[in-house]
Amino acid sequence: LSHPDRPPSPVNVTVTQLKANSATVSWDVPEGDVVIGYAILQQRQDGQMQRFIREVNTTNRACVLWDLAEDADYIIQVQSIGLHGESQASKRVHFRTLKETDRLPSNSSNQGDITMEGLDKDRQLQTGEIIIIVAVLLMWAAVIALFCRQYDIIKDNDSNNNKEKTKPSSEHSTPERPSGGLLRSK
């Protein structure tokens, strides 16, 4: 049913560089009419959100989809824009964004080396941050433990001193506890 003046539909629509909140769509345009741009219809499979991206005066055969929800199913279709109108929409392409926690996408065959390196760098950074956080927590734990230990010692000293004070006895009847003994015997 395609109109003779309309350009052919894009083919080989593929989704690459899939991340949690973005993906790149690319496609080929068959030989035929002059194509002056493209239009992409992106929608969530649950129908919550649709976005229409339209670019004219471009020979680009790819487009970055940004601001996607993580771990969600999307459907995209691409149209070529010619001088006399738009092509039929391409075949529907399904893709699913990653969860934030996913290390690498399942279709890593599409991944270029550049994005792989980028992902690795991000991961190292996150591990570094986690190590710092853990170290800080451990330090605090140690400080608190030390403080408690000292506090207990002080409490012990107090209760011992009090016991001694209340004992009705002459000053010289406690030879087993020389003054300052506690401090020295750390």
Automatic annotation (TrEMBL):
Transmembrane segments: 130-148
Pfam families: fn3 (PF00041)
Mode of membrane association: Single-pass membrane protein
Domain Fibronectin type-III intervals: 7-100
Keywords per UniProt: Glycoprotein, Membrane, Secreted, Transmembrane, Transmembrane helix
Broad class of where this protein is predominantly found: membrane
CDD domains linked: FN3
SMART domains assigned to the protein according to its UniProt record, in alphabetical order: FN3 (SM00060)
Subcellular location: Membrane; Secreted
Residues covered by region (Disordered): 157-186
GO process terms (BP): negative regulation of inflammatory response
Residue ranges with Basic and acidic residues bias: 157-175
Any single Gene Ontology cellular-component annotation: extracellular region
PROSITE patterns listed in its UniProt record: FN3 (PS50853)
Protein name: FNDC4 protein
Gene that this sequence comes from: Fndc4
